Known about the structure:
By secondary structure, this protein is α/β, with parallel strands linked by helices. It has one domain. Helix content is 36%, strand content 15%. It has helices at 14-37, 51-59, 74-82, 84-89, 119-130, 150-160, 176-183, 237-241, 246-252, and strands spanning 44-47, 70-71, 93-98, 101-106, 109-113, 138-143, 189-194, 204-206. The longest helix has 24 residues, at 14-37. The protein starts with 13 loop residues before the first helix and ends with a helix.
Amino acid sequence: MKFNTPTVNLFSNPYHMMKNMLKRIEWKLYKQRKKSRLINREVSIISSTCNGGIISHDLGLRFNTPTINAGIYIPDMVRFIKNIDYYLKKDIKKIAEKNHYYYGRIDDIAVRFTHYKSFDEAIEKWNIRRQRVKIDNLFLIATDRDGYTAEAMRFYDKSMKTRVKKNAGEIDTCTYEEIKMFDGLPVEHKVIFTHKLYPEFKSAYCIKGFENEKRIGILSDFKPTFWRRRYIDDFDYVSFLNGKSVEAINLERRD
């Protein structure tokens, strides 16, 4: 005889309904408080991943950067920043498309796009936003998972004959030297999120929870806590955008 197990609907329980409503309200107020603290609103965030877009969206910022929904590998990001005026004037050429990712290049720099319906849409947005970049109010955001991927190596080796390292075996984990390269960039405001401590680098900020991993995880994921908090919320990015150094933020952290 077969018995049907009744499905438990959490929302039919008044306690769960009240708890989830409370969490949603607190999460909304939490983000509003962050937004109200921001003074420096005309920033340009150059980000190696979608983290810059997430922060911009949270704070209601205009997208004064072409790297929204785009990714740049650390070695290329370093080269891009060192000669940013040159690369912002160059057009992007399409290389490949796979699994909703669009791979392109700017001269000798690799760029990957996601969350776009087509490569043409990605380029249209890039071209509009690159004209808004404020060089005198530049902020850099990267993570230690932004090394070259094996997928990118296949595309870029063929089309660009780049310096992509052949021993990139760890998928997308940055090397120590790449973190050092980023830390040495001549930009005052920069942060690289890492899975472990690097006290020797002023721009390194360790996000707790990935100490046993080979790289940091997805920072937009929610943590297993009662209140809704993402891993990226461990970093006081409002103070960062208001001009506080990563060193000072590290000294003030409470976790």
